Amino acid sequence: MTDYGQDLLFGAFVTPTAAPVHQAVELAVAAEEAGLDLVTFQDHPYLPRFHDTWTLMSYAAARTSRIRLSGNVLSLPLRQPAVLARSHAALDRLTGGRIEMGLGAGAFWDGIEAMGARRLSAGQSVDALGEAIAVIRAVWDATATGPVAVRGTYYQVDGLKRGPAPAHDMSIWVGAYKPRMLRLIGRAADGVLPSLSYLEDGPSAYAGINEHIDAAARDAGRDPARIRRLLNINGTFSQFGRSFLNGPAEQWAEDLAGLTLEHGVSTFILATDDPTAIAEFAGDVAPAVRALVAAERSA
Amino acid sequence: MGHRLRFGALVTSVAQARRAEELGYDLALVRDQPDGDAWTLLSWIAGHTERIGLATAVDAAGWEPAVLGRAAASLDLLSGGRLAVALTGDHVAEVTDIVRGVLDAGEPGPLRYLGERHRVPRAQRGPLPAHRVPVWLTGNDPEDLRRAGRVADGWMADLSRLGAGELATAYKILEDAAVEAGRDGAEIHRILIVGPGLGPDELLALGADTFLVEADDPAPLTSWERLREGSGPPVCRPSSVRAKRRPGIDYEAIPASLAETAVEPGDLDYARVRSTYLRGGSPGVVLRPRTTAEVVDALAFARAHPGVPFALRSAGHGISGRSTNDGGIVLSLAAMNDIEILDPSRRLVRVGPGARWMDVARALAPHGWALSSGDYGGVGVGGLATAGGIGWLAREHGLTIDHLHAVEMVLADGTVVRASSSPDENPDLFWAVRGAGANFGVVTSFEFEVYEVGDVGFAQLVVAADDPAEVLVKWGRAIEEAPRDVSGQLIMGAPRAGQPMVAQLLAVVDHDDPETIIERLQPIAAVAPLYQQQVLLTPYLSVISNAADGGYHQGAGEPVSRSGLIRHLTPEFALAATELLNSGAVHWFQIRTVGGAVADVPADATAYAHRDANFSVAVMGSSARRVDAAWDRLRPYFDGLYLSFETGPDRVGEAFPPATLERLRALKGRYDPDNLFRDNFNIKAATR
Ligand SMILES: Cc1cc2nc3c(=O)[nH]c(=O)nc-3n(C[C@H](O)[C@H](O)[C@H](O)COP(=O)(O)OP(=O)(O)OC[C@H]3O[C@@H](n4cnc5c(N)ncnc54)[C@H](O)[C@@H]3O)c2cc1C
Known about the structure:
The complex is a heterodimer.
Chain A: E1 9-14, H1 23-34, E2 38-41, H2 53-62, E3 68-71, E4 74-75, H3 81-94, E5 99-104, H4 109-114, H5 122-140, E6 148-151, E7 156-160, E8 172-174, H6 179-188, E9 191-192, H7 206-219, E10 228-233, E11 236-237, E12 246-247, H8 249-263, E13 267-271, H9 275-298
Parallel strand pairs in A: 1-2, 1-13, 2-3, 3-5, 4-5, 5-8, 8-9, 9-10, 10-13, 11-12
Antiparallel strand pairs in A: 6-7
Chain B: E1 6-11, H1 14-22, E2 27-30, H2 38-48, E3 53-59, H3 65-78, E4 83-88, H4 92-103, E5 111-114, E6 119-123, E7 135-138, H5 142-151, E8 154-158, H6 166-180, E9 189-194, H7 200-205, E10 210-213, H8 222-225, H9 239-242, H10 256-259, H11 270-273, E11 285-287, H12 292-303, E12 310-313, E13 329-332, E14 339-343, E15 348-351, H13 357-364, E16 369-370, H14 381-384, H15 394-397, E17 404-410, E18 416-420, H16 427-436, E19 442-449, E20 451-452, E21 455-464, H17 468-481, E22 486-492, E23 502-509, H18 514-525, E24 530-539, H19 540-544, E25 560-566, H20 571-583, E26 586-593, E27 615-621, H21 624-631, H22 652-655, H23 658-671
Parallel strand pairs in B: 1-2, 1-10, 2-3, 3-4, 4-7, 7-8, 8-9, 9-10, 11-13, 12-13
Antiparallel strand pairs in B: 5-6, 14-15, 15-19, 16-20, 17-18, 17-19, 21-23, 21-24, 22-23, 22-26, 25-27, 26-27
Helix pairs in contact in B: 3-4, 5-6, 17-20
The structure holds flavin-adenine dinucleotide.
Flavin-adenine dinucleotide (FAD) binds at residues 276-278, 311-319, 321-323, 333, 353, 374-376, 379-380, 382-384, 386-391, 437-438, 442-443, 644, 679-680 of chain B.
């Protein structure tokens, strides 16, 4: 039982489809109206059926006023860390602090390579992500003296002017499953963001995720409880309970509250392009999970 | 070639951009952000503005160039075609090529680019932006200017950084380089950043077409505004686009009302409009009228090109209707897609030809109404409602045309008429439109009287068809015996080695009581052992909402489809149909139900005359020769055909019984003697 006591967030994981052009934006608006905390978009720049995720996020941010936005997750190999830092900070300032950074070390390397970027091995990509986080944090650290200097294997940034700082203490959430990446998160990131459908042993695999992160965090002198545990989920609303996240809203609530109380998962992001599912998730599931968790935590 | 003058404001915030938009500026250019990110701010501004053009300088060093291409496409799409990009930085010619290569989504194959600095092994192109995103280059050195002259759509410079004489020299270098590269020097836009105080004459003397004003806040345009008038055409096609024009079409004569929306082979939008759902096409021009008056103009243009192929298109799902062509004129009514409730008490609605049937269903659903059309929501109103309309509620409510109340049409000579059954509203034309409309004019709006439809039962069954003939006969009998609130279809494919033969049985039961629905479906489900079944109680809207939104047609080749109407599925017919399936010549065999209310209408009441059939049979294959060899054995069983499912030539005599055809030929002679409308079951005018 590892509940880190983090406040609960509920979000939507929206396909950044380019056709219909505004579908993803409309879903972001729907998520805000439904009362979700967060709307997130995947990023696959090698696929022309999707919008450029960063452009879409900036545009969707302009069409909403309260909901927070993040990539889920942005493909680091096709985006430069210093630019990621600046653009996120800029949008965070424009939105009054509604932006978080979702980062991924890269998947689908065939596609990445086809676009002109360098193919990295799994190990290399973890190291590259570590360097990128260093660059990003250095750019954001506008009050530190001297320019940004990170001389890594994958990124060499020398003499870059610092700033701007984001409007709020922006989190870096990293999509991760494997021990090396999880340890990097423990050392350097602010959250872990796996997808339930990729967890081979189902939700209970979160226990292993936590172990790696917590150990690395403690080694680095960081408080594990400050590293957010997020999860992309998918499921079906149906009249009768059939299986995990396949049933009525009350059952969803119990399934999710269980994940919070057992594994400390505090952010649930529903993968859907269906406004009705978004409304049900926000209106029925989220409050019920909050109530169940609050009751248990105060008990 | 003169460009239309445009005025822009340099902005650093959304407030300034909005102010510029209010003041009537054409463009907002986000300046380099020392402390931020210009692209992000530009995207943010896009979300906060409606009309104003958007531009920024992008330092290509911050981007993977192919990703920048994607981002440009996205922002252009999201903003509704408002983007221009000024590229800066090293190797900018290479970046320009790559960005353009990604934006050119109509080009075949992936983008492969091997430059000195940038290599893109095989990036997929797209998404297709909303318009041709102009790429501007900057730099005042001769080398920069020559590069811009070779590759850019525009050259942008800051007047404060140029000496008085330098501008003329710069233009000269620009133009010489353009000409050397085989371009028209005048097509390159000249974009100048200027101070606020210039008078109109001083401005004109600068010889640029776009002026970006440097000011703390955008000031009213006042004395500049009038310079725009008569300054140049709104659309200015570069030589590379004009080079793709087709012979025989007088492009300069495209009526002014249509020039802005017309699409030529070199245009970016060409990829969106060249093909239809089932056919690949390469028309010479696609005219896209928005109003009836523009349709009149378009027809005048078509009449002036008698030797050039001419096709009419609504939503591009034509099978018999060849709504694209090679090198000809296409009149696309896609933009005329309004749906309007005229009289709620009579459930009278007016629908534009370009609307799709799922759009119609979406507009009617909130009122509890529907109008049976076909089985596919992507099909257009224009093509279907001029031919018949065999839909999910056909047995109960008849054909779509049976609920047509009146039409507005543009005739071949450009006259706009109204047709209805009323004696003073061209009743004979109204008769012809309902079944043979494509031969008589362009229907620009349809008035339907729709009906109430609540939730319906929608069944999708898969049954064993080891003996296809038996399934056909039993299903046919079950349908004929079913109450009229049941309509449906049967689909089979060619047998495949190692797989059991199956039939898909689809049915809509217009009833919202689950028990009645099950009762109605039982005889259908009993025709053969069930492999799969799904029965939903669902709004009619969800049954017809089965097409994707937002894409465009990318059909290729030429479909082969055959149609026949038949009264009963007799054992003899069923055996012949089984042989046809076994021949492997058709990959799709589909029977839709008609009869019921369709047969209540007298045969001579509309040009769709084969009213007594209970079934409409259609097959699709790829080789006309093979399909016909198999289909000919079925022909004796048919009595007529539904033209919408037939691609064979010369079968006009089967589409219309003799008396109907005779009347149609007489009317054709009256309304379209020169045979302008000929892309769909062409009826020859009676010789007088
Ligand atoms: C997937 C699919 C499913 C279908 N299912 C059914 C079905 O269930 N029932 C059924 O009845 N039909 C069905 N059809 C046939 C369909 O009704 C016809 O192909 C129809 O012509 C398509 O209309 P459109 O406007 O989309 O076609 P378009 O390709 O735009 O037009 C086809 C032809 O119609 C004529 N036309 C178009 N607009 C006008 C106009 N405004 N005025 C005069 N003539 C015009 C022109 O001759 C044109 O060539 C189906 C077709 C497809 C591709």
